[in-house]
Design goal:
mainly alpha; rod-shaped
Amino acid sequence: MIQIDMTFFASILNFLLLTALLTFFLYRPVRKFMMDRQDRIKRSLEEAARDRAESAKMKQEYEARLAQASCEAQDIIEKAVVQGERSQAEILDAARKEAKTILEQARSEAARERQAAFEALRDDIVNLVISTATVVTGKNIGPADDEAAVKSLLEEGWLSSAGEREP
């Protein structure tokens, strides 16, 4: 049989007091902390999405520049051919040599521009990834970490010395 006396009422009072104190001192701060954390994560994800979109836009711009450089190189080649066809018979050999030189220069210029665009794109992507990783992890990534990551990618075959993925 249950006896109702002062101990029972004191226990109920203690329980209610403990519940009120835990709610005020523990539940509310933990809830506030979790809401703040959720907001930070949401902002980080939105920023990462913006950065990813910006990176894609930059990649498209670099590809467009590369295509334009290729078209310009093709135009230079075509002009050299037309010039060679218009030349008279006595200067035909000299025109062919000049066209060959122009073609080599255009190809080397296109290769240099392609390599420069690739390096610029790679640097931008690396910086974007580092800044995104810094934001997401909340940890500042330094040059030592960058060097270790590049060495790791080289060892795994993701990068060659020319900057392209090895088969």
